[in-house]
Specification:
The protein has helices at 43-51, 58-75, 80-89, 97-111, 115-144, 168-177, 194-205, 218-223, 249-259, 290-293, and strands at 2-3, 6-7, 11-14, 22-26, 37-40, 150-153, 183-187, 209-213, 229-232, 236-237, 243-246, 263-266, 294-298, 304-308, 321-324, 331-334, 337-339. The strands form five sheets. A seven-stranded mixed beta sheet has the order 8-7-6-9-12-16-17, with helices on both faces. The chain has a three-stranded antiparallel beta sheet with strand order 3-4-5. The chain folds into two domains: 2-130, Up-down Bundle (Four Helix Bundle (Hemerythrin (Met), subunit A)), CATH 1.20.120; 138-338, Translation initiation factor eif-2b, domain 2 (Rossmann fold, 3-Layer(aba) Sandwich). 37% of the residues lie in helices and 19% in strands. Helix 2 packs antiparallel against helix 3. The two termini are 32 Å apart. With 341 residues, the chain is of the alpha/beta class. Strand 16 and strand 17 (337-339) form a beta hairpin. It binds 5-S-methyl-1-O-phosphono-5-thio-D-ribulose. Residues 56-59, 95, 155, 157, 161-162, 166-167, 194, 232-235, 245-246, 320 line the site of 5-S-methyl-1-O-phosphono-5-thio-D-ribulose. 5-S-methyl-1-O-phosphono-5-thio-D-ribulose is lined by residues 56-59, 95, 155, 157, 161-162, 166-167, 194, 232-235, 245-246, 320.
Length: 341
């Protein structure tokens, strides 16, 4: 999608005539204050960028790990299987796209004849992810076009999170391209504020009307009849259809069910974990207390500053994801279409 009218992808490979190429990414920690593209030839830097959430969102994490493994193949071919696959697999636990991408790159490595084959495999992985998410958006726009124009979303399931297009936001971008005028309620998404910092920025860049609201406003807006539909992404979908997504999604599903509002999850095949029987089997990432206790954001130079918002000595609980039972959803939309309980 576009930034100031120029097309970008969240993560990508850049060939260079003098060296073996590098991995590039939009630094999501600097947004919306600063739009900055980082690059590296060091796979360890790529792994750390996943851990620090400079790149986040399930499909982008998977694609970025694939690019990082291509880089590892250029720099350290002999240790791709003995070290780098495990290094990438332990960067974050919940989004299954990471493991999907690592498995795909392991297969590519076992078949590869040249180092360059790993770059081709990673670029193909990214392109396939973009194609899947574009297709999801087409299906989602079809269901949203049935008068569901005031759309609530949670976290960031846009192009930053999915290389390009997005999952949930892909449907909104498709609606806009079809000449519709969707309006989006953007949950700020505490504690890391992916909604306020990233989703609102994305929508604003595309000229889509939106307002940021505190997460705690969502249930009341639904009850007040001001939300026509809820669309979110997913980090892992179990075999029974239970969905792990950003913390707060489960609460939205309860409010949606209580008030008869449709709620859709949009996710590509790489987010479906057929080896995972139910939502209870999904590992939920517990992140650092600091994300809750300290407000962090870049200053005007793009340097991240920290402000304590609580008394020192008080601890915090910070589960990063929750699980929504399939029965609470109107449907899951993948590149194969609409799945309903
Ligand atoms: O912790 P994050 O920001 O990586 O969590 C991301 C989400 O929960 C998104 O909603 C999900 O990955 C869908 S992305 C298209």
């Amino acid at each position: 999608m576009n930034v100031n009218g120029i097309h970008y992808q969240a993560v990508f490979w850049k060939n260079s005539p003098l060296a073996e190429g590098e991995v590039c990414w939009i630094d999501q920690c600097a947004l919306p204050t600063l739009f900055r593209i980082k690059s590296s030839r060091d796979p360890e830097v790529v792994a750390q960028a996943i851990e620090s959430m400079e790149v986040r969102g399930a499909p982008s994490i998977g694609a970025f790990a694939a690019l990082g493994l291509a880089l590892a193949a250029q720099q350290d071919w002999d240790r791709v299987e003995s070290y780098w696959l495990a290094r990438f697999r332990r960067t974050r636990p919940t989004a299954v796209n990471l493991f999907h991408a690592c498995d795909a790159m392991q297969q590519a490595y076992q078949k590869a004849k040249h180092k360059r084959d790993m770059v081709d495999a990673a670029e193909n992985y990214c392109a396939a992810e973009v194609a899947r998410n574009k297709q999801i958006g087409g299906y989602l726009a079809e269901v949203l076009a049935v008068g569901e124009r005031r759309i609530l979303t949670h976290c960031n399931a846009g192009w930053l999170a999915a290389v390009d297009w997005g999952t949930a936001l892909s449907g909104i971008y498709h609606l806009q391209q079809a000449g519709e005028t969707p309006f989006v309620w953007v949950d700020e998404t505490r504690p890391r504020l992916q909604g306020a910092r990233l989703t609102a920025w994305e929508l604003h860049q595309q000229g889509i009307a939106c307002q940021i609201q505190a997460d705690s406003a969502a249930a009341w807006m639904i009850a007040s009849g001001k939300v026509d539909a809820i669309v979110v992404g997913a980090d892992r979908i179990a075999r029974n259809g239970d969905v792990a997504n950003k913390i707060g999604t489960y609460g939205l599903s309860l409010a949606a069910k209580a008030h008869g509002i449709p709620m859709y999850v949009a996710a590509p095949e790489s987010t479906f974990d057929t080896a995972c029987p139910t939502g209870k089997d999904i590992p939920i990432e517990q992140r650092a207390d600091d994300e809750v206790l300290i407000a962090a954001g870049p200053d005007e130079q793009g340097i991240v500053q920290h402000i304590h918002i609580s008394a020192s000595g008080v601890g915090a609980n910070n589960p990063a994801f929750d699980v929504t039972p399939y029965a609470n959803l109107t449907g899951i939309i993948s590149e194969r279409g609409l799945w309903q309980p």
